[in-house]
Amino acid sequence: MNPTQLEHLLSTLVKKHLLQSVMIWGAPGIGKSHTVADVAKSAKIDLIDLRISQLAPTDLRGLPVADHEARTSRWYPPEFLPRSGSGILFLDELNMAPPAIQGIAQQLVLDRKVGSYTLPEGWHVWAAGNRSEDGASVFSMPSALQNRFIHVTVEPHFESFRSWALQNGIDEKIVAFLAWRPELLHKRDPKNPAWPSPRAWVAANALHQADLPMNPAIGDGPAGEYRAYLKVYATLPDFDTILAGNTKGIPFPKEPSARYAAAIGIAIRAKSPDKVKNALDWITENADPEWIQLFLHAKLDTARADNTFGVLAAHLGKNPKIKKFLDSYRKLLGNT
To answer: Which range, 142-156, 193-207, 224-238, has the best average confidence (pLDDT)?
Structure first.
């Protein structure tokens, strides 16, 4: 399952009020926690994100307090557990927690209660964890706890990352580079603490925008490849000229890495109706179908933010060279 499919699954559970517990498996930095946060934000419901591996048993179960009159002790639950409303209780890093913590979490998952505390009816209980093969320090999960969840495994997926990245301000050069070298989206390096993952690329983007080296986020090798890729941008046609409609005599690049950069770069820069039309005219006149498709995918990822879905759909219908793609994009355009 890729992150986009995971988001669809979780969103559907929320929309249909299915309180099925979910365990999300995947490598570190792949976007598990971020996807859960996006689902909560889109559904406009609360999210309580517990890094459960960092809790002590009393943090989750609560503290015993003496009732002198009844000569008993009562458990006072922690203040971070919800008392009302609806939302997502997210137990992150579940299998990094020692057995004592997992045992208490098991009560929440199985019985929706712990001690005298009961989880309100409108709350989902989801969890996430890394896999031992990814080098994470994890504990085995009790079979009773395993069997209560539905289990999904998330894998790296460039298209999902591209869609998210273009809607969240990741530099177009990074997106184009990863379109050309998608294997560097997530490439664990056991010998080095810094290696590329979706989370690491977000950190690298912040460093890049501050004119700082990206090596501390993604490692020396990927950072070196990216620096070399930046030289590709010096060979690209002038986007402003193309977007202004002055496209005569401006060819589409021939070198593959430059083609990725041109198709994605001009899609991101086309933020008005006229610029979308001019970009679409230029790329359909000069590029092969695979690069037109890359342009369209990138433009669809950004069209919601810049309100150009309508003009894109209109020009797609008028352009004879693009009609063969209409069936592929009609559903996407129709659902906006």
So the answer is: 193-207
